[in-house]
Amino acid sequence: MNTPRGGNSKRRLISTAVLVLIVVLFLGKVLKLPVALFVASSGSMEPWAEAGSIVLGVATYIRGFGAGDVVLWCWDSLRTACILGRVQTVVQSFVTLKGDSDPAPTTLLDGSRVTYVAVAAVSPRIWIPVFAAALGVLAYFSLRNRNRNNSNNSGAGNANNSKNGANTNRRLYAGFAVLLAVNFLATGAMYVDNTRPFYATPWATLSEPRLDLERGVYSFVVETPGFQPLNASCVSEGFALETSMVSSSSSRVAAEVKLPRSFFEFLWNRSYGRALFTSPPARIGEHFVVECVLTYDRGLLTGSYVASFTWVEPSFEVDGSKLVVNNSNPLPLSLLIELYSPRTGIISRTVEAPPLTVHVVDLSQLVPGAGVYRLRVYYDFLGAKRGWGTDVRVG
Amino acid sequence: MSESAELKPLRPVSRKLKALFAATSLVSAALSLLVVVAAFTPIAVYRGYVADGTVSLVWSSLRVYGGPAILRPLESLPKVSAPLIALSLASVILGVRAVIGFLRARSRGLEDAFHGDPVYDYLRYIEALVLASAAAVMSFTLLIALVRVAVGDILPAIPLGGCIETQAGRLCLNNVEVSFSWVYRIYFYRGILVVAVPTILLLLTATTALLTIRSLYRYLKYVQSVKGNASSLHTADGAQAPSQTG
Known about the structure:
The structure holds two protein chains of two kinds. Chain A is α+β, with helices and mostly antiparallel strands. In chain A, 25% of the residues lie in helices and 43% in strands. In chain A, the strands form five sheets. In chain A, strands 1, 2, 3, 4, 5, 6, 7 and 8 form an eight-stranded mixed sheet that branches. A four-stranded antiparallel sheet of chain A has the order 9-10-14-13, with no helix packed on it. Chain A has a four-stranded antiparallel sheet with strand order 12-11-15-16, with no helix packed on it. In chain A, helix 1 runs parallel beside helix 3 (161-189). By secondary structure, chain B is of the alpha+beta class. Chain B is 66% helix and 12% strand. Chain B contains six helices and seven strands, in the order H-E-E-E-E-H-H-H-E-E-E-H-H. In chain B, a hairpin with a 2-residue loop joins strand 5 and strand 6. The longest helix of chain B is centred in the last third of the chain and has 56 residues, at 190-245. Chain B is rod-shaped and about 105 Å long. At the A-B interface, helix 3, strand 8 and strand 16 of A face strand 4, helix 2, helix 4 and strand 6 of B. Strand 16 of chain A pairs antiparallel with strand 6 of chain B.
């Protein structure tokens, strides 16, 4: 008679002890116990600990940690907001952590908030079936005991109905109590992963910026994957510039900005005087900023692009009776040509050298007859009054 | 002629009390059901390029800047919400069982009252009601905590628009259209909800339990007094039995 009861009470003792141990371990994180069980609430440490794994942790006041260790870092005192990650660096009292499946480490974190060193993890694919099996075994033995009680009481009639009802209630409350306990343990053993979010932000690149002085065009290419360009508009130095857009693909757009003569005149006037105190041939650097707004289906791209070129003092040479003028500037250059001979006196003409051209002036058209003349060419280059001269035989 | 005790038959619980019990059980079950519904209801729905998807306590699907995003807090929420849902469902089941059982419980006749104890049948369901209400309150409080985490900590980390500096300039993106549900609004009333709702439910449950127990106590007293009268009547009848049958 005693042996089955003794066996039952021994089994009950062992199972109670195991239950208490598990409960204490699951409460360890909240109670700051030396050893604790907690649940990995995200997949940041996969494959070492899958999401939902039960992790065994040793408190940092028992065991230290270093680079390579998996630790639990919590920023609140109740340990409800934590990060489970592998230590990357330890710098004085700061650490950086990185989940094995996270693309980047955290920023520097306060090392004193590392609470547990994770030493082992049990995958949910293992512990859930084990837990379900244990519940099943518990339910089986509970039902078996109930059936035994029912068969023993089958002849007792109504007198024991309420007692059976009370037993049913006790089992129901026991089940409910287990659920409450599991709830309590689960919420105590879990945490909300506080790892910062990782996502790829869109990007845009500028390439092939080019200033074509001959065409009077500034062009560039912008690549913005995933964005459909709609239109573009550009301004520079207060000028609204005509802008056209050519899309070579859905994410790549080439834009051309027309620069009118008035724009270059503005630049010239702005740089007027900079050639003073320079020796010919003067070269004066010029730059301007083109501010563009490209409209896409998903937003706007606002960019400021710098373009530059050089004002170059014109060069002259005489070829026979021809004056060759090299004007490599984007504006026409006004030249005062003077030819002198004792016979004719001074003959002067104003000639305009077109922009970006090598202009030839036939001197024979300017003088009444053949002869040797003294040639002088006067011009204004960015405020510097310049002159160039030579003797030329015309005819 | 035997003297029998002329006692008005007394019910263990009145119809009004049954109605109160049913109402309390249903309120408890409704609160738990509300918790379950809130867990599954999307807290916020995002429509746009910067963020697109839904966020709820049990399931979230979100794309950020047109691509997949790793949002670890959102991965945690379903796991932390699982015990909440289990507890709420258990509370609903217990509450419904309590009300059905309580309404079905029949007062036993005077004869049955001598052999059984009809009070226990009612007491069972009072206990079930108290447990169900306690669980409903716990799960509601836990829901408030999870909503606070979701709305106060997680949602603000989701980008809604703004500008990004790129090599080609500043890329300013169209704002996201966000719609929030009633679960989101719980966050702004959490202070009063976490106090008022549990207080109301617990008061209701306590009042129901107290009134029911008092009613059952009165019934017990009545049964005991009837039993006492019947015993004394039996002794008197025993002496007169031969003349009655004769």
